[in-house]
Design brief:
There is one protein chain. The protein is an alpha+beta fold. Helices cover about 25% and strands about 30% of the residues. The chain has 16 helices and 45 strands. The strands form nine sheets. It has a ten-stranded antiparallel beta sheet with strand order 18-25-26-27-28-37-34-33-30-31, with helices on one face. Helix 5 (about 135-140) links the parallel strand 4 and strand 5 (about 145-150). The longest helix is centred in the middle third of the chain and has 30 residues, at about 350-375. It is globular, with a radius of gyration of 29 Å. The protein starts with 6 loop residues before the first strand and ends with a strand.
């Protein structure tokens, strides 16, 4: 056979290093030290051992150097020579469960880490993540990555070959190569000659039948596998025994360059890669360990939506920006963002480590936010004892009913804003903490008179704010010279309303929602449905004999609370459910699921808020809440990273998957970022979630949104599930009692009803507001002490109102990030188009002249440079098409 026609087999030595799984991070790190030392020795000392792929995770080198700093120069030399390959990821992140900003920062810090050691691999290497997001081509290209190497998500009925062009939602394209049989395919190479020849013929032959070129990717390695020290010698033997092929040791960048040069007329695959015919996608992993998912989502929203913008505002007022602290918070999240960790498909002891990292990240973020709000509040011109600084981290003026936590005295008061307007409010909760608070007060300057109230209550208030400046702050003050205690009316009632909706509890235990804007009545809403879960940490799967229990028909006790700013309907009821899967199969319901639900309408708000508490004392089940839209639809609508996606509500593959022996049943349980729903062009409905990002469209007409609240199970892995036949995905011997989520569980979500088409309804903007509450800081002398640490008196020089940046009134983009730039004194503004059809644009107004230019997600200038303004206060962005994102670097002109 001529050289031209010979198959070239690229043997890629590598490891796939899970940082934790059924084992803990501690075990993984200890063994990583031994592994990396062996890799370094092999690369330096074994003739012909040219390359090694360290799983494209920069965090592994950070972990190693922390314990072996003496090897940093060795690593730097090998990475710089492109022999030890790492990056572009910091950890091998999931792409569907975590937020868009979390993905971007993972790549940013991953490439930064790899570059620190000499080189970041420009390959979208994803050996084991459970599916590929439709927006990854755009994200990859923004990081200078034009080639993609992966395993899960594509099967032969979609593309029979391993090479194709992948086109994302926005139209961006990357060259893609699949490892069709997994990253571990060449991990076990026999050494006896009589075994080696048939092994090569079988393994390489199967890859050749998949390939559309003469190039074959043959990975040698698997999970936590030791380096094959005699691999160069084995490759020599391959070449001697198999004269029909050429075997070379290589690494992904060189391999992809060669195969792309030989590829032509490639098919184009578009959108999400989520097909599970030949490999498992574990689609319902979105709801595994709902408690951990809630923590992740809460922290992601806190950092990107609130903390980073407040830090940018603080920096603009003269304070240092704490880059390293923010980086540490993100890296704690990245440790949890790896596909096993964020999936929750771990042992209980590993998930305890995950939970602790979430606790650390949240505590650091919350206290950093508190400090910078305090540094600003303590320098604002203030005469009143009781003043609150309110921070709006969205780019437009906001005014709405907002929750504020405060320490207040016993007296009655009115609340005023900086324009003297009286603000309506109510006190939702109130607890006496006089001794605790006043006992911690510290007088740093005893000569200065400080007002100490006789009694102090920790309270939660709802306040109707009028105007909080865009990307800035304002103050409200409590005036004790007048006022009366707000009236709160509590009664045994079953209806509430505001300007937009009227809600009534029906006799069958469901809600009837009347939309006052359109007159449309939505009956039988908010149905809680409990069914069995015979799955494991990877997959939801119904039992062979299930019993579905619905709240429709339940007897509920109802009370209402009415104030000047809100109305709340409170429900108590109990679902009689099976205690476990055995009872469920027998149709027995000896278990109980006590539930409390609060449905709230705030004054002027086009949103219905829900808070659900469940006392879970039963096993192996799933609880969802259903909303019947009345819209029979072939497509659901949900947000995805930097955009929106329409997905089919039914799949034709369901009819053939068993006959074709798919690895998993094709299901329409889907992921979202913050909302999901249906719209028919004239009206629609969407659920907004702060918790589990999982939904499904169900019903005979595919008209009902099912939002998953939680699911529980008892084993890491199980065999022969209805939705996943065959072997267990995880370790079937590992029990997971923590995953039964016994005890009190709490969930919050919203319902958004639209009286227009989807694009006109601005659902994404509502969702962003829902997940970005206005933050507040109480500046009172009597609080200065051990409670929050003592502060010295600062010179009060700041105005009571401040706005750093705002979007024009006609803007229709969504802000994804506003923060200080990583590599300059400027600020990063990242926006995206949230619409299905229409384009989006914005003019950004700053409070002083600026220089602005478009940059990549890496915050690097584009080629050619795309300057947007020079010395003006307005930055005019070009139009954004469907699902397009844009990042802008804005620098204060006077500082340049």
């Amino acid at each position: 056979m001529s050289e031209r026609n010979r198959t070239k087999v690229h043997v890629i030595p590598h490891t796939h290093w899970d940082r934790e799984w059924y084992f803990t991070t501690s075990r993984s790190k200890v063994y990583l030290v031994k592994h990396v030392k062996e890799v370094l020795d092999a690369l330096e000392n074994i003739d012909g051992f040219h390359y090694y792929l360290l799983d494209a995770q920069g965090s592994l080198l950070d972990d190693y150097i922390r314990w072996c700093p003496e090897d940093e120069e060795r690593i730097r030399q090998l990475v710089s020579a492109k022999r030890l390959m790492t990056g572009p990821w910091y950890t091998q992140t999931d792409q569907l469960v975590i937020s868009s900003e979390s993905m971007v920062r993972n790549l940013y810090y991953g490439m930064k880490t790899a570059q620190k050691y000499g080189h970041a691999m420009k390959v979208g290497y994803v050996p084991d993540a459970f599916g590929q997001s439709a927006q990854m081509p755009q994200i990859y290209r923004e990081f200078g990555i034009e080639r993609f190497l992966f395993w899960r998500g594509v099967s032969d009925n979609t593309n029979p070959h391993t090479e194709f062009t992948w086109e994302g939602s926005d139209g961006s394209r990357v060259f893609a190569v699949q490892m069709p049989f997994g990253y571990y395919y060449g991990g076990n190479i026999p050494e006896n000659e009589e075994d080696l020849i048939p092994y090569l013929e079988k393994q390489i032959g199967a890859l050749e039948r998949k390939a559309s070129t003469k190039h074959i990717y043959f990975p040698n390695g698997f999970d936590q596998a030791p380096v094959r020290l005699n691999l160069p010698e084995l490759i020599k033997r391959f070449n001697a025994l198999d004269t029909e092929r050429e075997y070379v040791m290589n690494e992904p960048e060189r391999f992809l360059a060669e195969i792309e040069a030989d590829s032509q007329d490639l098919p184009v695959l578009r959108g999400e890669l989520m097909e599970a015919k030949h490999m498992r996608i574990h689609k319902s992993i979105f709801s595994t360990r709902a408690d951990l998912k809630q923590q992740n989502n809460r922290i992601e929203n806190l950092i990107a939506n609130t903390l980073e913008p407040v830090l940018a505002i603080s920096h603009s007022l003269g304070h240092d920006y704490p880059h390293r602290i923010v980086e540490d918070i993100w890296k704690l999240l990245f440790e949890n963002a790896a596909h096993d960790s964020i999936g929750g498909c771990n042992s209980d002891t590993t998930n305890q480590d995950v939970a602790f990292r979430y606790k650390q990240a949240y505590d650091i973020a919350l206290n950093l936010l508190d400090l910078h709000m305090r540094m600003i509040a303590s320098t604002i011109q203030q005469k009143e004892t009781f003043a609150f600084t309110l921070f709006n981290t969205l780019p437009y003026v906001r005014g709405a009913v907002t929750e504020i936590e405060a320490y207040i005295p016993e007296e009655s008061f009115v609340i005023r804003d900086t324009k003297g307007r009286e603000l309506a409010y109510t006190i939702v909760e109130k607890a006496d903490q006089t001794d605790y608070v006043l006992g911690q007060h510290i007088d740093l300057n005893p000569s200065r008179k400080v007002h100490l109230p006789e009694r102090v209550y920790r309270a939660k208030l709802l306040v109707e704010l009028q105007e909080v400046p865009a990307m800035g702050y304002t103050q409200i003050v409590f005036d004790f010279s007048q006022g009366a205690t707000p009236v709160i009316e509590r009664r045994n009632g079953d209806t509430i309303e505001n300007e937009h909706f009227s809600i009534a509890l029906q006799a069958n235990g469901t809600l009837q929602i009347t939309d006052k804007r359109s007159g449309q009545v939505y009956a039988d809403q908010m149905v809680f449905e409990d069914n069995g879960d015979d799955g494991d940490s990877y997959n939801y799967s119904p039992p062979e004999r299930d019993l579905i229990v619905s709240s429709a028909g339940s007897q509920m006790s109802a009370t209402t609370t009415q104030t000047s700013v809100s109305q709340t309907l409170s429900l108590r009821f109990t679902l009689d459910v099976p205690y476990d899967l055995e009872e469920r199969a027998a149709g027995i319901t000896s278990g109980a699921l006590p539930m409390q639900v609060e449905i709230s309408l705030r004054k002027g708000e086009n949103l219905i808020r829900f808070q659900v508490q469940v006392q879970n004392e039963v096993f192996s089940h799933r609880l969802r809440v259903l909303f019947d839209t009345g819209i029979a639809s072939a497509l659901s609508i949900a947000d995805q990273p930097f955009g929106v996606i329409a997905r089919p509500t039914s799949l034709p593959e369901v009819d053939v998957w068993e006959r074709e022996q798919w690895q998993e049943k094709p299901i329409t349980i889907e992921a979202m970022q913050s909302y999901a729903g249906l719209n028919n062009g004239s009206h629609g409905m969407a659920v907004l979630t702060e918790g589990v990002r999982e939904y499904e469209i169900i019903g005979e007409q595919m008209d009902t949104i099912a939002l998953t609240l939680f699911r529980t199970f008892g084993f890491m892995g199980k065999e022969n599930l209805l939705y996943r036949p065959g072997r267990a995905s995880g370790e079937k011997i590992v029990t997971t009692p923590d995953a039964q989520l016994l005890g009190e569980l709490s969930f919050t979500f919203g319902l958004h009803i639209q009286v227009s088409g989807f694009d006109e309804a601005n659902v994404a903007r509502t969702a962003r507001e829902y997940l970005t509450p206005i933050s507040s800081y109480q500046q009172c002398d009597f609080l200065n002490g051990r409670l929050i640490f003592a502060f010295r008196d600062e010179e009060r020089v700041l105005d009571t109102d401040y706005s750093l940046m705002s979007f024009s009134d006609d803007s229709n983009v969504v802000l994804s990030s506003f923060k200080k730039a990583e590599q300059s004194e400027g600020y990063i503004v990242r926006v995206f188009n949230p619409y299905l059809a229409q384009s989006a644009n914005v003019n950004i107004h700053f409070n002083q002249p600026v220089h602005a230019e478009r940059v990549s997600l890496r915050e690097q200038p584009l080629e050619p440079q795309q300057r947007l303004t020079e010395g003006e206060e307005v930055v005019r962005l070009p139009e954004l098409e469907h699902c397009k994102l844009m990042t802008v670097l804005v620098s204060i002109y006077a500082e340049l």
